[in-house]
Amino acid sequence: MELDFYPLDASYAVVRDAPVIRIYALTASGEQACVLVEGFKPYCFAASQKLALEELKQGLAKLPVFKDDKPVSFDLEQSSLHLLGREIACFKLIAQLPEDIPLIREALDAQGLEALEADIPFAKRYMIDTGLVPLALYRAYGEQVAGIMKVPSFAASRIEKISDQAPGNLNVLAFDIETHSPLGKFAVAEENPIIMLGFASESFQKVITWKSFKTELDYVEFVPSEFELISRFKEIIDRQKPDVIVGYFSDGFDLPYIKARAEKYKINLELGPYNSPIIIRKGMMPSAEIAGIIHLDLFKFIRKIMGRSLETDSFDLDSVAKELVDESKDKIDFDEMNRVWESRPEELEKYCRYNLQDALITLKITHKVMPSIIELVRVIGLPMQDVTRMGYSQLVEWHLIKRAREFGELVPSKATYSEIRDRKSKTYEGAFVFEPEPGIYQNIAVFDFRSLYPTIIHAHNISPDTLHCSCCPSELFCKKKPGFVATVIGDLIKRRMSVKQMIKESPQDKFLGARQEVLKTIANSMYGYLGFFGARWYSIECAQSITSFGRQYIQTVIQQAAGAGFKVLYSDTDSVFLLVGQKPREEVVSFVASINKQLPELMELDLEGFYRSALFVSAKAKEAGAKKKYALLSESGKLQIKGFETVRRNTSIIAREIQEKVLQLILTEVNHETALAYVRETVSKLRRREIGIDKVIITTQLRQDIDDYDSIGPHVAVAKRMRLLGKRIGPGTIISYVITPGKEKISQRARIPDEAGEYDTEYYVNNQIIPAVARIFAVFGLKPEDIIAQNQSKLDSFFNA
DNA sequence: GATTGGCGGGG
DNA sequence: GTGTACGCCAATC
Q1: C-alpha distances in angstroms, A314 versus A177, A254, A302, A307, A323?
Q2: Three-state SS for A584?
Q3: Phi, psi of A741 (to 5 degrees)
Q4: Scanning A63, A124, A479, A648, which has the fewest C-beta atoms within 10 Å of its C-beta?
Q5: Are strands A439-449 and A287-289 parallel, antiparallel or unpaired?
Q6: H or E stretch including A715?
């Protein structure tokens, strides 16, 4: 018989003293199934730098390994694998059970021998060694056997890949709980009940609560008590049979909470097709898993992986929803919700809507990011459960582990604590940044190296295993044998190029877009990984060689640009800004071509585009131009602003607006006079109080408890006032305030916007507007006091006319 | 300026 | 589960 299936996840069980791999699968027809594989054996390696092969073998033959005083048996097999490119005396130790491996490792440790690859979990080991990739299509040959729990099972004697096709539709069920909590405090599972439980999937919506009220909402279901609410959680998951359940911070909140409440009531909360308990891993990063159901914590994935590409720096559901699906959550006063729950259940409807909304938004975001998750799973080759909880360095590392064996490489061990401390103390030179001459320039061309660091790694064979090879004594990196990391990254780059080619043919395929994005992400993370203190393939020599080559390449471009008669305005890491001036554009194009002719395979300098104008400002207290701080105006009139740090929080809207407008005017007009007039006009308006109070509100986040502050800044003073008014203020609260006129200290003049009345115009002129634009006007020789000078310029009168 | 401590997310 | 955890900002010396 055969069975076509998509692996979702894998684990193992010990049956009659032998491990059996269980592949949790979705059949091609969309049913849950379990594919069983016997005969895969746990193993690790023992290696020695000092001992000869024969000595090592003899040592291993009498290696004492015991489990409860009984000897543990294992087989020995000579291995010819390398460690970081070097030959090493090495044996494979093949055990009976996965649990024997840690015992073998300890025994090796005790003999002063190194255990290698003894920390790769058994089910992952199976997937890596057999090349089984989740969410691709496989065919198993074998026979139907008695089902594991509620799931039809299939004992496979052989498995082969059929295609890279991902399953069409995963059944995703989002869930969310609301809890009761004491006034002003956060709920704790030991004391406070779950009051609502919401679900949302493509075809299903429900909110369960245990106090009834009159409602028209058809998705609300009443149960008699929290006990039944938790029982319904299990029933609904059993009935809906989701492939994926998703929550927002459900690793750290919802699932641990549900589990704790179930334990309190002694409810047997065995979930899903395999009657699996919720397993909570505590620690710095708690996680929750349910064997046989993929549990996705959307928060964790967004924060660790997607966060980098998002604008928001806060990862609460509301901010993330606004950015990713253009939706926002209703505002809820939780103290009010708790009071309603306690004494006015007839008003609970609003909170049921809120509960469902959370689940719906979570579902919507999940659908939006699912292509990225699926592609990440397929590129890394490990289950969704795992890859959505990894950071970049772990993703890179598992990708390398997945490919190590093809290169005859052993997976290096993790660094010890002292090695890590050592590595952390080491630094090295980074990228080259060209200091721009402050000023405004017209007609600019911008170039950048496409994937500079990844292509350098590939082009120069940079890899921990090619470093100081024995065959090329005068070279830093081997010239003969392709390195492991260098080849892997070359493959990533080439795969991405071919995917981009496919995108040209079918541009609307969102999976292709996600795949090239994932391939880029992994490739771009490789440099950082090599210099990351926790990396198995850590190599500071590799990391510093990469930046060193990067500096050489960019400086070569700069020199040749100068040689070709271009003035170099600016350069940072992988980009160069040139003044084109009156030169014909063909010269720019042929300049790029001449550079590209000299570059090694896969390296390429792109002409990113032409710009109408650019502004560089000077660094604080320096003549030289500031690095990483400039504004560009594209040919289509689009403004790009980089690094102006006044455009941040602690800044009022008026200050941000004026900064952007000033840059816009200066870049468009290519002089500062209109911008200056605009600033003066705005200052006049502000002094006439024609600027609304909403534009002068300053917001700051409270970092600690109010009473813990020693220095009372304006936001702390206002927070105290808010507390006096009965508002619940704690760490994390965003405090909005306005500075009002007066002679006292700033903090004493800060007011809640509603209570402010009027604002202090001179404070806003001197502390918000001028600092926001001072550096820009300094480029034109204006001092801060010149900006709003009393002697009027002619343009000023032009504006007032 | 380095170092340390706490928090994020969730209700 | 053959395992392990992070990274940033603010306060503080």
Answers
A1: 21, 20, 11, 9, 11
A2: coil
A3: -65, 160
A4: A648
A5: unpaired
A6: helix A714-724
Q: What is the pLDDT of residues A243-255, one digit of tens each?
A: 999 999 999 999 9
Nearest CA among A570, A554, A568 for reference residue A630: A570
Query: A46, A115 in Cβ contact below 8 A?
Result: yes
Could you count the other beta carbons within 10 Å of the beta carbon of residue A655? 24
Structure tokens at A794: 């002619």
Closest CA to A273 of A31, A6, A36, A7: A31
Reduced to 3 states, what is the DSSP secondary structure of residue A114?
Answer: strand
Which residues neighbour A578 within 8 Å (Cβ) at sequence distance 6 or greater? A444, A445, A446, A447, A561, A566, A567, A568, A569, A588
| A45, β-bridge pairs | A92, A116
Kind of pairing, strands A151-163 and A32-38? parallel
**Residue closest to B8 C1′ by Cα:** A315
Q: With a 7 Å cutoff on the CB, does A123 touch strand C?
A: yes
| A202 beta carbon to strand C: under 7 Å | no
Give the separation between CA A57 and CA A54, rounded to whole angstroms: 5
User: Tens of pLDDT along A531-552?
Assistant: 998 999 999 999 999 999 999 9
Question: Quick one: residue A257, left, alpha or beta (phi over 0 = left, psi -120 to 50 = alpha)?
Answer: alpha
What span, in angstroms and rounded, lies between the C-alpha atoms of A42 and A348? 55
Determine if strand C comes within 7 Å of the CB of A99.
yes
Return the axis-axis angle of helices A510-530 and A452-459, rounded to nearest 10°: 70
Question: Helix count (H) and strand count (E) of chain A?
Answer: 26, 31
How do residues A192-226 score in pLDDT, each as one tens digit? 999 999 999 999 999 999 999 999 999 999 999 99
Nearest protein residue to B6's C1' (by CA)? A704
